[in-house]
Amino acid sequence: MPEGDVVALTAQRLDAALAGRPLVRAELRWPGTGGAHLVGATPEDVLAYGKHLLMRLDSGWTLRTHLRMDGSWYVARTGTHEAAGKGAFVRAVLANEQWTATGHRLGMLDLVRTRDEHVILGHLGPDILAADWDPEQIVDRLVGTGAPLAEALLDQRAVAGIGTLYVAEGLFATRTNPWLPVAQLPRTALLRLVTVIRGQMLQAVTGGLGARVVHMHNRAGQRCPRCRSVIVRELARQPPEQRPIFWCPTCQRAG
Question: Any catalytic annotation for residue 243?
Answer without folding.
Answer: yes
